[in-house]
């Protein structure tokens, strides 16, 4: 465990816990999202500044949750290209497993041209195609996207760890993702993101957020980051990626490494 990891655990331990039941009123299924990209050293400072104003989600004694997500796309990468080409509204299909509780959901995310995200989901038994079909995934996906599970394939998987903070007013959630690793099913390539931290502020509309001033103090600026798109680009060189070139340069600067992403065939 690195010094930064130890410091992250230290400051997490100082925050009061909040349970899943207590968070039931702040699902934010229809929300605005603002993302920020930084590194673990800055995260330590942010957690210190958050003391006294935030709860940390705790599940069965753990304050760091583990996730696995598989993104599904058409063989011609419809959803990736919608994002790359700046289309709005745009969508993504994913199957996410909460590894600590062994719960899995098939989800469709839709982002409109006002920056508002809607997420709809159904429970499925596993990440396998047969489980999606048995759970009514064809009808669910078709109603929202116009295609069925027969039209899509698994493209990119990610695994990561997440901290979830909730402000004392319970009007927002702050998710903090790190130790993100990718696997590409089409190229059989893997990639890790080292010191990278992805922060996402989720709130209904533009309600006051106590974390924004703290992010500004630390010079952590808004920066869009799609795990699906970035994971796709760094594991599949054949994909169109012009729009992400500048973002990749900024990401390398944030994490303080010349090559934060280590890809292998």
What do these coordinates show?
Residues 258-265 have low confidence and may be disordered. The relative contact order is 0.19. Helix 1 packs parallel to helix 2 (40-49). Helices cover 27% and strands 35% of the residues. The protein has 265 residues and is α+β, with helices and mostly antiparallel strands. The protein has helices at 3-14, 40-49, 78-84, 129-134, 137-145, 210-217, 227-235, 245-255, and strands spanning 17-18, 30-39, 54-57, 65-73, 90-98, 103-111, 116-124, 153-167, 172-184, 190-192, 196-203, 262-264. The chain has 8 helices and 12 strands. Strands 2-7-6-5-4-8-9-11 form an 8-stranded antiparallel barrel, surrounded by 5 helices.
Portion of residues in beta strands equals 35-45%
N to C succession of SSEs:
HEEHEEHEEEHHEEEEHHHE
- The first-to-last residue Cα distance is 27 Å
User: Helical element count?
Assistant: 8
Range of helix content: 25-40%
CA gyration radius, whole angstroms: 18 Å
Mean pLDDT: 89
- Look at the helices and sheets and give the structural class: alpha+beta
Strand ordering within the main sheet: 2-7-6-5-4-8-9-11
The major beta sheet can be summarized as: 8 strands, antiparallel, barrel
Low-confidence runs: 258-265
Q: How many β-strands, per DSSP?
A: 12
What are the main properties of this structure?
8 helices, globular, 265 residues, alpha+beta, disordered C terminus
Short overview:
With 265 residues, this protein is α+β, with helices and mostly antiparallel strands.
């Amino acid at each position: 465990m690195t010094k930064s990891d130890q410091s992250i655990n230290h400051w997490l331990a100082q925050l009061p816990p909040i349970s899943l039941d207590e968070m039931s009123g702040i699902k934010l299924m229809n929300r605005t999202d603002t993302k920020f990209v930084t590194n673990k050293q800055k995260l330590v400072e942010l957690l210190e500044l958050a003391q006294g104003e935030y709860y940390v989600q705790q599940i069965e004694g753990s304050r760091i949750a583990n996730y696995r997500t598989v993104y599904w796309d058409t063989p011609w990468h419809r959803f990736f290209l919608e994002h790359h080409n700046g289309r709005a509204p745009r969508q993504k299909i994913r199957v996410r497993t909460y590894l600590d509780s062994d719960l899995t959901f098939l989800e469709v995310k839709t982002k409109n041209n006002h920056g508002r995200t809607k997420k709809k989901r159904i429970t499925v038994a596993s990440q396998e195609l047969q489980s999606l079909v048995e759970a009514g995934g064809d009808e669910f996906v078709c109603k929202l996207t116009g295609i069925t599970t027969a039209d899509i394939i698994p493209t990119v998987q990610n695994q990561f760890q997440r901290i979830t903070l909730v402000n004392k007013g319970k009007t927002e959630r702050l998710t903090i993702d790190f130790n993100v690793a990718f696997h590409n099913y089409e190229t059989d390539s893997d990639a890790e993101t080292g010191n990278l931290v992805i922060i996402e502020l989720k709130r209904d509309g533009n309600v006051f957020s106590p974390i924004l001033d703290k992010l500004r103090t630390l010079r952590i600026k808004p920066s869009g980051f799609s795990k699906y798109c970035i994971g796709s680009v760094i594991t599949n060189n054949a994909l169109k990626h012009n729009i992400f070139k500048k973002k990749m340069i900024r990401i390398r600067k944030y994490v303080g490494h010349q090559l934060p992403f280590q890809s292998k065939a």
